[in-house]
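Handout, section B. The chain below has 460 residues.
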Amino acid sequence: MSNTASKYTKQIHIAVDLLIINFAFFDGYFLKFGHLNLFEDTRYFLFIIYFNAAWFTIGNSVGTYQFNPYKGIENVLKTVFRLFGFHILAISFFWVFIKGYYFSREHLLVVYLIMFVCALAWKMGLYYFLKFYRKQWFRLKSALIIGYGENSQELSRFFQDYPEYGYRFLGFLHDKTYLSNDIIGRVTDLPSIVENIHIDEIFCSLPDLPDLNINELADYADDNVIRFRILPDFRSFTNRNINVELFEGIPIISFRTLPLDDAFNRFTKRAFDVFFSSAVILFLLSWLVPLIALIIRLQSKGPIFFKQKRTGKDNEDFWCYKFRSMYVNIDSDKVQARKGDARITPIGRFIRKTSIDELPQFFNVLLGHMSVVGPRPHMLRHTEEYSQIIKKYMVRHFVKPGITGLAQVKGYRGETTDPKMMQGRVKFDIFYIENWSFLLDIKIVFYTVMNVIKGEENAG
């Protein structure tokens, strides 16, 4: 599809979305209140402005309007569900922070039902229309591949298996002899082939032709108005999530791309951290801190809070806060707590068992040192020690450490003296980092609460 057509498709897509969400909003308002005097109601006038702004801001962030009919219907459905999920979250924040205004839940439920049905039907219809348009009316681009290795053959199979991408495969050029009808000549035959066959694009596989002068081929393609593309070989990096970025035209290959590299995902996670930690501090710690502080002081001398340097995001140190659960001792920064540890006070055993000792870390979350969910922060000595013996240990520091994490809900909590146990913890930490989603954070928080209620053996 041409750039002009793509531009108009995006504009039409936005316009129809605008019609759908406002039709749903007004229709829901009429069904709930029996009239359409919405603009006379200051509450709902502000609400509809925010409602629209949130929809299009989130829609642009999750890629709703970068519509690609080649990525499959699953991608369309995933984008729609992400858009609705984040939009509902944004509206929930609006209700929490706009105090003194009442909004009808029944109205909002009707609005979302109408929106979901209409938006899903519209986006699926647009997907299938663009796919049909591509197959029926879009001129196929003739493609030639230079090279005959595994990479080249995979590309040729792709052209044949996915005609909706708009390519008509002509064959291979290669200087070696192979028993294949798809090889239509040698590389030196390219000029004569171009004279007899119209070619739109040439794909050149670098690993198959190490001695080839790529610049000469590229110049020849430019002189004959043929697009020239390079087919690199990343097969030796199949276990890595490779991403190619352009820095002002300079191609950069990254071997590790993370969901939290995305600005919108970071914003979502930070918004949840601020909201959740503020709620815990306001509704729980505001009365629990004085109570725990009094009991700690009655049982042993020393500070209420225990602070310790831990390793945070990007390997930066920060002060991590906990309720003091031990008698004051000189080994707190050197020796990890163990089951039956004589240094632990009576109240310390209880608050460690119930994880109450970790609650002051919500102040760390609010300050931005930590997140509610993430890899647990370790003592500096442990970071130095395990980074030398555990493969990929430092990968866990690409994100903020958390009060709880995937490793913890999977049983890797408390004392970790066995390197195999630490290796298992790191494995789950890396899985979390590479597969982060807002839903995963919610699941981890839920399972953490369940574990606290049941009690954890390793919490000692």
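Note. The two ends are 63 Å apart (CA to CA). Compare this with the example in section A.
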